[in-house]
Amino acid sequence: MTLELTIDHIGAGGDGVANEGGQTYYVPFTAPGDRITATPTEARGKGQAATLDDILSPGPDRISPACRHFGTCGGCALQHLSPEFTADWKRQKIRESLSMAGISDAEVLPTLTSPPGSRRRVELIAAKRKKGVMIGFHLRRSHQIFDVGDCPLLAPGLLALVKPLRAMLPSVLPRNSTAKVMATVTSNGPDLVITADTDLDLEKREILAAFTAENELSRLSWQQGATTPPEVVSARLPADISLAGVDVTLPPGGFLQASADGERTLASFATEALTGAGHIVDLFAGVGSFTFPLAGAARVHAVEGDAELASGLQAAANRAIRPITTETRDLFHRPLLAEELNGYDGLLFDPPRAGAKAQAEEIAKSTLPTVVAISCNPVTFARDVALLIDGGYSLGPVRPVDQFLWSPHIEMAAVLRRQ
Fold it and tell me: Is 376 a catalytic residue?
């Protein structure tokens, strides 16, 4: 059954939303105002998913996609929308989440967007079949793999690895197997972590070592299954990144902000908000993306649940003689208590997507004068901020930062001050 639909708006997941005959339809790759034909597929929530068949007349915010693979490759969802519309739509997502949490008067600033070609961290999927290896991204809502060619999203150094990987992986992967390839830009060349359920013999290790040298990687690690730690197979140079002028070595597969541009924007926001604070606690510190910029004018105590990340952060701080101390602590199960927090005059927290509910409850009980909240999830961000407001903090302007170009995701930062 083919329907004629008019797209009303873009939903939270990036699909166009249309209402026809009392039924809601979710249609990917559509823009507000598009008049389309579409074929309904499976039920989705209280509505119906549909596939786009044809665009009868385009809406005012539709543009030509930047990539020839858009619509087939599942890596991007919003390339067909104008940058201005996308920036405002992401800003509105934050407003809506705050409103749902009871915060209706928040000032949400214009979105700052990272440029194309700036994504410095990517996970590719590889699959060995009879005719060779396919490598790329999953097709939209599918386990099938799109064999990627071009990608305007990725940093050029990462995109340049796709063809060499396609040629090398058949020598190390068994037939009908799959692997994940996590690639990260570092100061000394790309860092790769390959995850595959297969053993490495001497011949395969030599192939991987040669690949590291030929493609000027900083390091190549192999992870046999998602639950085992990665093993460094070949290291040409340290897998370092520069944070506020300090070289920090990434552990294999360690988390890093999606773009250097976005990281600088968030760090600048945080350092300005915490100007004057002499002793700062940085929670969910990771590799120190915000610890090192903050340590330019303050003592910083960095708390991180991953012992390897915390150890690497401390080692880098010691080499650079920065006023930084570290602590390994699971903040989900053992948040810093209000009495501990009262010893600081500034705090930053940047939790995973699940947010920091337990920690926010303790911050709300503390006497901390200034808190910077950073998040990649508007829903948990709004929940945590609401807890702080209920505890006596006032919310300043919220800054959206789009490091996730052409996707529905958005990062945000805000400063809260105790009244």
Answer: yes
Q: Phi and psi of 93, rounded to 5°?
A: -60, -40
- How do the pLDDT tens digits run along the chain, 419 residues long? 899 999 999 999 999 999 999 999 999 999 999 999 999 999 998 899 999 999 999 999 999 999 999 988 888 999 999 999 999 999 999 999 999 999 999 999 999 999 999 999 999 999 998 888 999 998 777 778 888 888 999 999 999 999 999 999 999 999 899 999 999 999 999 999 999 999 999 999 999 999 999 999 999 999 998 789 999 999 999 999 999 999 999 999 888 999 999 999 999 999 999 999 999 999 999 999 999 999 999 999 999 999 999 999 999 999 999 999 999 999 999 999 999 999 999 999 999 999 999 999 999 999 999 999 999 999 999 999 999 999 999 999 999 999 999 999 999 999 999 98
Among 67, 73, 151, 376, the active-site one is 376
